[in-house]
Write a structure and sequence with these properties.
single chain, 755 residues, Rossmann fold, Dimethylsulfoxide Reductase, domain 2, Barwin-like endoglucanases, 3 domains, seven-stranded mixed β-sheet, six-stranded mixed beta barrel, 26 helices, 31% helix, globular
Length: 755
C-alpha cells in the first residue's frame, strides 16, 4: 500500500518563504493563461471547448479536458496553452506563398504564426512559389509519381505532433498497400532504445507502471529527464509525492532548476511558497550514465543490498553482470562517470534501503550512440531489487509527445508491424490474409536513413506528415541538400514549416491537415502509462479544405493500388478503424468501445509484468553485462579547451521554439551552459562571447554560468545540430545529440584538435 500525501501544509518542503517566489527565476504560469486567452480571443468558446473536452495534444500524460487519472483537481500546463493557438488560429491567405523568397528568411516560429495552411498547393522547379490546386490534382500528381517508380524509392514519415492512433494505423496500412515498409515516425528518434531495451530485458515494450506509483513510493529517480520543462503537469505529482514522503533523486549532467524547486500554480501552498523536489542530485559526465550505474550496482553487491531471492527465482544473467562489474575498477568508473566512489555509494544506499522505487528517464538517456545500453543499465539496477511488476515500482520511459506512444504500436514503423510484431515473412503473411493485399516482408528505411537515401538520389518520393527534418536531425546543411534532391516532396501539416520552402528538385506539394479536434467521429491517443483515451470532435470553425491525414492516405492508396484491393483500403469512419485495430493489435482490444469524452482503458493494467510474470521466452527478466562507454571518442583526457557538449530543450515543444528565454533556467537561446570552475580556468565570465567548434561546424554563443558537471557544456537544440555527427546513431537509429567541441574565445584559435 502506497503512503498517502499529508493534507496539512508542510513548510519543510517549501522552496522559499518569500510569497509567490518573488525575485526567483521560474515560469509565470498565470501570465501564460492570460496570454492564451488573448491570442484566442477571436475564438474563445472554441478554445474553451478544446481545453475542457479534448485530450491534450502536448505531452503524453493524456490529460482529458482538464482532468487525469492520477490526481484530482484541475490540470492545465503552459505547454498545452502554448499549443492552443495552433488549433484556433485562422488560415493564412494562400497568395502569401506565390513568392517564397522572403518567407525563406523567416524563423520557423514566424512561419507558424502566419496561420493555418488552408488548401492543397504545388510548386514546380523554377517557380518562385506555390499555387493553389484541387485535392484531385494534388493526389493525382502524387499517385502518378508513386506508380511511376518502385516501392523501395518511396518514404513516408509522420511526426508525433498531435498525431492520433487512427492516423498512424491508416497511414501504415496505406503505405504497405503501396508496397513498402519505408514508414517511420517520431518515436524512432526519441524512445526506440527504450522500447528495444525493455523488450529484450522484460519482454514488454512500454512503461511498466502508472503515474500513481510516483506518489507514495519510497524512491523516485529521474535520469536524463526534466519533467518540469517537458511534462509540466507532473510537477503536481512531485508535490504530492513529497507530501507522501517520497524521496526524489535526479541523475543528470546539469542540476536542472525545475527539478530542484517549482511553484505549482494550481496548488495554493506551492503557488505561495514553492515546492522543493529533488533532495539529491548526482551529476555525471555526458555519456557517463553506464559507468555511474555500474558503480552503484558494484556497491550494492559488495554490501549485500541486492534481492538475492528475486534474482535467483525470476531473473537470468546476473552472474555475468556481476563478473563484468567486478572487472571494472573504481578508477575507471569514476573517470568515465565524472562522479566519485562516495557518490555512487550514497545513491546505492538509497536504492538498497528502498522497498519500492520508480525509475523515470527520457532523451538524456536514449539520444546517445549507446542509448540502448543506457536503458539496459537502468533496468539492471531496478532488477537488483525487483523494482518492477508491483505497486510503487516500475520503469518509465516518459514520453514528451501526445501521439508518440501509439505510433510504433500502431505499426507506423519501419522495423515492426502493428502490435510491435517483427517484420518477417510469417507476420507479413498473416497481415496479407487479413488485409487482402501482399504486405512487404523486409524492413524499411528508418527516418535518418530516408534522408541518407534522399542525399544519394535513391528516393523519388518523400512524404512527410508534420515534423521538420531541417530542425530535428544533425547536420542541417546536409539535410537541406538531401531534401533538394528528391523529385517529389509532399508535406502535409496544419501550418508552414521551413522544410516546405526548400527549393524543389522537381515538385513540392503541400497538403492541409486537420487538427485532432477537427476529425469527424473523434480519435484516440495512447499516453505514457499505456492509457488509450478517446478525444471527441470539437464543434467549431474549420479551415478551408483541410482533411484528416488518415482519410488522405486511404484515398492515395486507392489511387495507386490495383482495383481489387480498393475495398480493404476504405474505412467508413474512425469508429470502423478502431474495430479493425482491436482485431489486429491484441493489446488494444477495447479500443472499439471508446466513443465519447472520458472513455479510456489502460492496456496491460496498472502494472506490466505484475507478480513478476515476464513475457520473455524463458519467463524471466534478463540482466545485461555492460561495459561503460568512454565519453564519446577516446580514452585520453580532453585538452583544456575541449568539452563534452549536450543539446537541451528550452522554452519549446519538440523543435518548435516558443520563446528566446527559458523561464525556468533564465538562459537565452545563445547560452552556453558552463560550470563556474571551467569558466574561471579559462578566464571567462557570464556573457562572454565564445565559439564552439568541431570538424562539422560551429556554434556562436555566450557563457552562461550554471551548476553543470565540470568538463561539460550544454547548448540549445535545434540550434546545436550544426555540431552533431549524422553518422553517430544508436543501434535503433537514434541520432547521438551530443558531441566533443573545442571552445574558442572571440578570435583566438587553439593549435590542437579535440576530435
Amino acid at each position: 500500500m502506497l503512503r498517502k500525501p499529508k493534507k496539512r501544509w508542510t513548510p519543510s518542503n517549501w522552496a522559499s518563504w518569500k510569497p509567490f517566489g518573488i525575485g526567483e527565476q521560474y515560469p509565470n504560469n498565470y501570465w501564460e493563461v492570460f496570454r492564451a486567452i488573448w491570442l484566442s480571443r477571436d475564438r474563445l468558446p472554441y478554445a474553451w471547448n478544446i481545453l475542457n473536452q479534448g485530450v491534450c495534444d502536448g505531452c503524453a500524460l493524456g490529460t482529458t479536458g482538464m482532468q487525469d487519472w492520477t490526481l484530482d483537481g484541475i490540470h492545465l500546463c503552459n505547454v498545452r496553452l502554448r499549443l492552443l493557438r495552433m488549433n484556433t488560429m485562422p488560415a493564412f491567405d494562400p497568395n502569401l506563398l506565390a513568392d517564397v523568397g522572403q518567407l525563406q528568411m523567416h524563423k520557423s516560429s514566424e512561419l507558424r504564426e502566419l496561420g493555418r495552411l488552408p488548401y492543397p498547393m504545388i510548386r514546380r522547379c523554377g517557380e518562385k512559389g506555390f499555387r493553389r490546386v484541387s485535392w484531385d490534382e494534388a493526389l493525382d500528381v502524387i499517385a502518378t509519381r508513386i506508380r511511376a517508380t518502385t516501392p523501395d524509392r518511396l518514404s513516408f514519415y509522420i511526426t508525433s505532433r498531435g498525431t492520433v492512433n487512427e492516423t498512424y494505423y491508416a497511414t501504415q496500412k496505406a503505405v504497405r498497400a503501396m508496397g513498402t515498409n519505408n514508414i517511420d515516425n517520431a518515436a524512432r528518434i526519441c524512445h526506440s532504445p527504450s522500447t528495444a531495451g525493455l523488450k529484450a530485458a522484460l519482454g514488454v515494450g512500454a512503461t511498466t507502471c502508472s503515474y500513481k506509483d510516483w506518489v507514495g513510493t519510497d524512491l523516485l529517480v529521474f535520469i536524463g529527464s526534466n519533467v518540469a520543462n517537458n511534462q509540466p503537469v507532473t510537477v503536481k505529482y512531485l508535490h504530492y509525492a513529497k507530501k507522501a514522503g517520497t524521496k526524489i533523486v535526479v541523475i543528470n549532467t546539469y542540476r536542472e532548476p525545475g527539478m530542484e524547486r517549482y511553484w505549482v500554480p494550481s496548488i495554493p501552498e506551492s503557488a505561495l511558497f514553492g515546492t522543493k523536489f529533488a533532495e539529491d542530485f548526482f551529476l555525471v559526465n555526458m555519456g557517463g550514465d553506464i559507468a555511474f550505474l555500474n558503480g552503484v550496482i558494484k556497491h550494492m553487491i559488495a554490501n549485500g543490498w541486492v534481492d538475492e531471492s528475486f534474482i535467483n527465482r525470476y531473473t537470468t544473467g546476473f552472474a555475468e553482470l556481476k563478473a563484468t562489474i567486478a572487472n571494472q575498477s573504481w578508477e575507471e568508473l569514476e573517470k568515465l562517470s565524472g562522479s566519485t566512489r562516495e557518490q555512487m555509494y550514497a545513491f546505492a544506499k538509497m536504492v538498497g534501503e528502498a522497498q519500492k522505487a520508480v525509475f523515470v528517464w527520457s532523451m538524456g538517456i536514449t539520444q546517445h550512440e549507446c542509448g540502448e545500453d543506457n536503458v539496459r543499465a537502468i533496468i539492471n539496477l531496478a532488477l537488483t531489487k525487483g523494482f518492477v511488476g508491483r505497486e510503487g515500482c516500475g520503469l518509465m520511459p516518459i514520453r514528451g509527445h501526445s501521439g508518440v506512444q501509439g505510433g510504433a504500436e500502431m505499426g507506423c514503423y519501419a522495423t515492426v508491424f502493428p502490435g510491435g510484431k517483427p517484420i518477417s515473412p510469417e507476420n507479413a503473411a498473416q497481415l496479407s490474409q487479413l488485409w487482402g493485399f501482399a504486405v512487404p516482408t523486409s524492413k524499411g528505411l528508418i527516418a535518418p536513413e530516408m534522408i541518407d537515401a534522399a542525399y544519394n538520389s535513391q528516393l523519388d518520393v518523400l512524404f512527410s506528415v508534420g515534423g521538420n527534418f531541417l530542425e530535428v536531425l544533425p547536420e542541417p546543411d546536409y539535410v537541406e541538400d538531401a531534401l533538394q534532391r528528391v523529385p517529389l516532396r509532399v508535406h502535409m501539416d496544419i501550418v508552414l514549416s521551413s522544410q516546405m520552402l526548400v527549393e524543389p528538385s522537381d515538385t513540392v506539394v503541400l497538403l492541409p491537415a486537420t487538427t485532432r479536434y477537427e476529425i469527424p467521429g473523434g480519435v484516440t491517443q495512447t499516453s505514457t502509462e499505456r492509457r488509450v483515451i478517446f478525444s471527441p470532435e470539437i464543434p467549431g470553425p474549420r479551415i478551408g479544405e483541410a482533411r484528416p491525414e488518415w482519410e488522405v492516405f486511404m484515398e492515395l492508396a486507392r489511387r495507386v493500388v490495383e482495383t481489387r484491393h480498393v475495398a480493404s483500403l476504405h474505412f467508413e469512419n474512425t469508429a470502423a478503424m478502431r474495430q479493425e485495430i482491436a482485431q489486429v493489435i491484441p493489446q488494444y482490444a477495447g479500443i472499439q468501445h471508446l466513443q465519447q469524452a472520458g472513455d479510456q482503458f489502460q492496456y496491460g493494467g496498472s502494472h506490466l509484468c505484475f507478480g513478476w510474470n515476464f513475457p520473455t521466452v524463458d519467463g524471466k527478466a534478463h540482466f545485461a553485462p555492460l561495459s561503460p562507454t568512454v565519453g564519446v571518442h577516446s580514452n585520453d583526457p580532453l585538452p583544456a579547451d575541449c568539452f563534452l557538449v549536450a543539446t537541451r530543450r528550452g522554452k519549446q515543444f519538440n523543435s518548435m521554439v516558443q520563446e528566446p528565454k527559458d523561464a525556468i533556467t533564465g538562459a537565452f537561446r545563445e547560452a552556453v551552459l558552463m560550470n563556474a570552475t571551467d569558466a574561471n580556468r579559462l578566464g571567462l565570465k557570464a556573457g562572454d562571447a565564445v565559439i564552439l567548434k568541431n570538424e562539422l561546424g560551429e556554434f556562436q554563443g555566450r557563457v552562461y554560468i550554471a551548476p553543470i558537471q565540470p568538463g561539460n557544456l550544454q547548448i540549445h537544440w535545434p540550434e546545436g545540430n550544426v555540431l552533431l555527427d549524422k553518422g553517430k546513431r544508436s543501434r535503433e537509429g537514434v541520432p547521438d545529440y551530443n558531441a566533443v567541441v573545442r571552445l574558442e574565445i572571440r578570435d583566438q584559435s587553439s593549435l590542437h584538435e579535440c576530435y
